[in-house]
């Protein structure tokens, strides 16, 4: 009696290994980008107290002029003094204030895969009593990195 052999051929095994290799080559870079976006989300959420402070100052003062609404004035928090997790020193700096515009600059720390990318928000109001509309500024380096 002749026995029938069971199992996979070498070619079938090589095809499976090749498919796994292709999937890994696609998945690893996507996962790295995903983790950087997750780390950078801390920088984005750290901007919230500054946005709120600027909005409250604008409602109280009626202007966003630097003399009234800047870091540590008018209820706006001071810029961070030291690296705090994903946020680097100097983050939250309020600048380019005009009567109806303000800019908040957040900077990522140089740790955990982040490399000091910036997240710049520009807030503009149509007038006193009107809301501030926040937009990401084109100068934000996180846009080019694809993480914000």
UniProtKB/TrEMBL annotation:
Superkingdom of the source species: Bacteria
Family from the record:
Belongs to the N-Me-Phe pilin family.
Pfam families attached to this UniProt entry? N_methyl, Pilin
Residue intervals passing through the bilayer: 7-31
Naturally occurring in which organism (per UniProt): Nitrosomonas oligotropha
Q: Which GO terms describe its cellular component?
A: type IV pilus
Name by which UniProt lists this protein? Type IV pilus assembly protein PilA
GO biological process: what's one of them? type IV pilus-dependent motility
Q: Which Gene3D superfamilies does the record cross-reference, listed alphabetically?
A: Glycoprotein, Type 4 Pilin
The alphabetized UniProt keywords are: Fimbrium, Membrane, Methylation, Transmembrane, Transmembrane helix
**What NCBIfam families does its record include?**
IV_pilin_GFxxxE
């Amino acid at each position: 009696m002749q026995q029938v052999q069971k199992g996979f051929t070498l070619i079938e095994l090589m095809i499976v290994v090749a498919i796994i290799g292709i999937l890994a080559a696609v998945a690893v870079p996507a996962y790295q980008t995903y983790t950087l976006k997750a780390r950078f989300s801390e920088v984005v959420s750290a901007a919230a107290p500054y946005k709120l402070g600027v909005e409250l100052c604008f409602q109280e003062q009626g202007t966003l002029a630097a003399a009234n609404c800047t870091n540590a004035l008018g209820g706006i928090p001071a810029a961070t003094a030291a690296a705090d997790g994903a946020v680097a020193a100097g983050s939250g700096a309020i600048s380019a204030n005009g009567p109806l515009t303000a800019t908040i600059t957040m900077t990522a720390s140089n740790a955990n895969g982040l490399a000091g990318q910036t997240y710049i928000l520009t807030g503009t109001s149509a007038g006193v009593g009107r809301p501030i509309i926040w937009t990401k500024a084109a100068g934000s380096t996180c846009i080019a990195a694809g993480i914000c």
